[in-house]
Amino acid sequence: MVRIINGKNVKSLAHITYKVLRLQEKFTHIEEFNNPGISPCIYVLWHANQFLVHGIRNREKLSVLISTSIDGEIVAEVCEKWGFKVVRGSSGKKGAVESTMQMLTRLKEGECVAIMVDGPHGPLHKVKNGAVKLAQMSGALIVPVHWFSPQKTFISLPSWDKMKTPLGKCNILNIYGEPVYVSENATDEELSNVKENIKNQLFEIEKNEQKFYEEALQKKLWDKKQ
């Protein structure tokens, strides 16, 4: 089978993807709810919600961890065109070490990083070790984040993670959880508890997403933007 995405057409596909997303950007209105405003920090999210980084403020000081796969190359190209910083990483030992060192540097410089904790290939909703280890090494707080809209233009794609994206005019809310601290001397059990905390927070936010959205409506968060 011929692979649609390959090294010869990555830049072209990235360019097309960026143009489509820039068009969608005109109709996408993302507001924030309960952002603790911590910098530096480690934003953690499910892979399905990766587009929510578009609603995080100060993108020029936000580094997004993206896999070194050929598909990741397109995502990385688009992110850089959009003004984000990018860190490329893989599940291999060498790639993981290199990406961790880059993210540590960014955090020490006062910048934030964003990590899809169950990506890039799943298992779905299983928090992996990377973000927790990074927090332990850096001292930076972990901040869970989820996005939501009840509008029909907020859709799920037919991918393994059911990735969510706006399609047409859409008001979306980025909802932030409680910051999580990881001690430099944390035991394996404590690290495991942190992973469970992240998972529980992301699920709890999702469970209450409609309530948060209604509160945002009462505060008229989108009225001044449109």
How many separate structural domains?
1
Describe the sheet with the most strands: 7 strands, mixed
State the end-to-end CA separation: 46 Å
Arrangement of strands in the largest sheet: 1-9-6-2-5-3-4
Poorly predicted ranges: none
Q: What's the overall geometry?
A: globular
Count of runs of 4 or more consecutive helical residues: 6
Structural class per helix/strand content? alpha/beta
pLDDT averaged over residues: 91
Number of strands: 9
Helix percentage: 25-40%
Task: Name some characteristics of this structure.
7-stranded mixed beta sheet; two-stranded antiparallel sheet; alpha/beta; 226 residues
Question: Mind explaining what this structure looks like?
Answer:
This protein is of the alpha/beta class. The chain has one domain. The chain has helices at residues 10-25, 70-81, 93-108, 130-138, 188-207, 209-218; strands spanning 28-33, 41-45, 62-67, 85-89, 112-116, 141-148, 154-156, 164-166, 170-176. The chain has a seven-stranded mixed β-sheet, with helices on both faces. Strand 3 (62-67), helix 2 (70-81) and strand 4 form a beta-alpha-beta unit.
List the helices and strands and how they pair.
Elements: H1 10-25, E1 28-33, E2 41-45, E3 62-67, H2 70-81, E4 85-89, H3 93-108, E5 112-116, H4 130-138, E6 141-148, E7 154-156, E8 164-166, E9 170-176, H5 188-207, H6 209-218
Parallel strand pairs: 1-9, 2-5, 2-6, 3-4, 3-5
Antiparallel strand pairs: 6-9, 7-8
